[in-house]
């Protein structure tokens, strides 16, 4: 049994960098596309932000689009990964507290409705990257290996 468990641990350790790069690529690209979508349809984004009660909808729309686009691209690259999760986490929390407020209000009565909301999934991925880092298949890892530790 111990031998099986040790093999299972080794297999999990082998999969970890592949898992981290897969979630960074998939979800980072999702952020990029969401940001591009907001920029492409900025007039609709501003109107939606105004309708859900965000202050200064013009500024809020450009800020959200910029955070999603730039931070998403950096996640794809694995550059400043932990740092860029912070504005992304804030953006997803704002989305949950505004556009998805009904699901948030009923989180205890219907937790599945809450966990199916896109901002929750993006938030969860950001927390995973914040906690575990980008993995060894990232620019962050290469910079750390070279001795650049300022932002990693």
Give a short overview.
The protein has helices at 2-40, 42-51, 57-77, 81-97, 101-105, 111-115, 118-132, 139-146.
Content of β-strand: under 5%
**Biggest β-sheet description:** none
Structural class assignment:
mainly alpha
Low-confidence stretches: none
Global geometry: flat
The average pLDDT is 95
Number of domains: 1
Rg is: 18 Å
Distance between the termini: 38 Å
Count, helices: 8
Helix content: over 70%
Order of helices and strands: HHHHHHHH
Strands, count: 0
What does the secondary structure layout of this molecule look like, with pairings?
Blueprint: H1 2-40, H2 42-51, H3 57-77, H4 81-97, H5 101-105, H6 111-115, H7 118-132, H8 139-146
Task: Please provide a written account of the structure.
The chain is mainly α and 152 residues long. The chain has one domain. 79% of the residues lie in helices and 0% in strands. It has eight helices and no strands. The protein has helices at 2-40, 42-51, 57-77, 81-97, 101-105, 111-115, 118-132, 139-146. Helix 1 (2-40) packs antiparallel against helix 3, helix 2 packs across helix 3 (57-77) and helix 4 runs antiparallel to helix 7 (118-132). The longest helix has 39 residues, at 2-40. The protein is flat.
